[in-house]
Amino acid sequence: MSSPETGTPPRPAFEVSNLSIWYGEKPAVRDVTIDIPSKTITAIIGPSGCGKSTFLRCLNRMHELIPRTRIEGKVLFQGEDLYSTGSDPTIVRRRIGMVFQKSNPFPTMSIAENVVIGLKLNGVRNRKLLDERLEKSLRMAALWDEVKDDLHKPGMSLSGGQQQRLCIARAIAVEPEVLLMDEPASALDPIATMKIEELIHELVANYTIVIVTHNMQQASRVSDRTAFFYVGRLIEFGETTQIFTQPKEKQTEDYITGRFG
Amino acid sequence: MIAPKHILGTFDEALASLRNNVLMMAGLTERSLDRAMKGLFQRDDDLCTHAIADDEEIDQLEKQIDKDGVDVLLRFQPVASDLRRVVSAMKLSSNLERMADQATNIARRARKLNQHPALPEVELIRPMHTHAMSMFKDSIDAYVREDVQLGRAVVPRDEKLDELNRVASRRLIQRMAENPDQLRGYLNLMFIARHLERVGDHATNIAEDAVYAAAAEDIRHQAYVAPT
């Protein structure tokens, strides 16, 4: 486990209470209350359409990019209300980065430009700082050794697994506090998948990571805690080992053992 | 099995086959122990020979269950109750194999005893046999019916078997001093008592694994507190 076992528990990274989200009339997430601890890996599992991606997106206000969404309830990040009137979604998204299912490097940009674009958009012009952050981010994303001689080649020239690690490097270049990952390895081969998982294990020393995955083995391999969602509701949340050896809820048991429906 | 059907039919079949092999192994082990003990009490060498011969089939079943268990782990990556079922099947098979070895040991000792005039002290073994077999049957029942209470209840019963073993040993040592001519026979009876005591240990392990399979609870190595 990544969390220290000493004294009072540190404040959770996210404190979500009674969160509901609608797309138009359709409820996607219903009355979810959950605390996501800091600097741990939390996996979210559940069948398609259970609201897990919607939930993930509302942790950095990404769902607002979809029209006609409505939200109720509270999401505190480091104790601050993410949805208070004074909260700027752009700043929220800089502090809480996201990696998507499909790797999406900017097609017209080089590998290097892809990594530092976030910093440039945030007004960083210092060449030395940009170069430092470029190397540091690529190293953290375990990609530096593979691309250090090709930094000016297009990002799209990389393999799928490398592109995904490039996107992770891009996400961490702006030094966020949280990484949200939506099926980050589902389109990758097993070796590339393991590289991403290894990377997740290394990143958790500095980041809070929330990962949505359909791959139950992946959830059991990488995460400290697992949340199971079903029809928009949080059914069970607990230590990953507990969820996968002795789930408390029958719905969780039926889903993870493949006895659903 | 209580659980609803798995989406993968082949997974359900593999789990069922694993379980059936464990049950078959339990049946054969019980028969083997029965034959060895009857061979002792009825002074019947044929029964002893059968008990010894059956061991081969039980050994093969142990290997089959291990192979099938590894296969299920590899192919289906079971979790939750499915995972516990596979793990407990593999652990049960190892305990059953050792119990069957005890049956073989008992049968060998019984054949030696049968070569000499009957010793009345064989009656010291009878209560141990009854007690060990009832622990064994209940532990298997607990596994079959996923009966946590029954499984839990088997564990403390091992104390009584240990006590019966101590009583039998003390008495046999006393008889050795009184009647050194029968030293060899008394020693064989002491070994048989010891083998039955081991049967009780394996029954305890099986009961503990049955509780783990049914309730995900590890009840091993807990200090037993007698009910007040």
What's the helix and strand layout?
The complex is a heterodimer of chains A (about 260) and B (about 230).
Chain A: E1 14-23, E2 26-36, E3 41-45, H1 52-58, E4 69-77, E5 80-81, H2 89-95, E6 96-99, H3 111-121, H4 127-140, H5 144-147, H6 160-173, E7 178-182, H7 190-203, E8 208-212, H8 216-222, E9 225-230, E10 233-239, H9 240-245, H10 250-256
Parallel strand pairs in A: 3-8, 3-9, 6-7, 7-8
Antiparallel strand pairs in A: 1-2, 1-4, 4-5, 9-10
Chain B: H1 9-41, H2 45-76, H3 80-114, H4 126-144, H5 148-154, H6 158-178, H7 183-215
Helix pairs in contact in B: 1-2, 1-3, 1-4, 2-3, 3-7, 4-5, 4-6, 4-7, 5-7, 6-7
Description:
In chain A, 35% of the residues lie in helices and 25% in strands. With 261 residues, chain A is of the alpha/beta class. Chain A has a domain at 14-103 and 178-256: P-loop containing nucleotide triphosphate hydrolases (Rossmann fold, 3-Layer(aba) Sandwich), CATH 3.40.50. Chain A has a 6-stranded mixed beta sheet, with helices on both faces. In chain A, helix 3 runs parallel beside helix 6, helix 4 (127-140) crosses helix 6 (160-173) and helix 6 (160-173) packs parallel to helix 7 (190-203). Chain B is mainly α. Chain B has a single domain (9-215), classed as Methane Monooxygenase Hydroxylase, Chain G, domain 1 (Up-down Bundle). In chain B, helix 1 (9-41) runs parallel beside helix 3 and helix 2 runs antiparallel to helix 3. The A-B interface holds A 216-217, 220, 244-247, 252-254, 256-261 and B 3-8, 11, 77-84, 216.
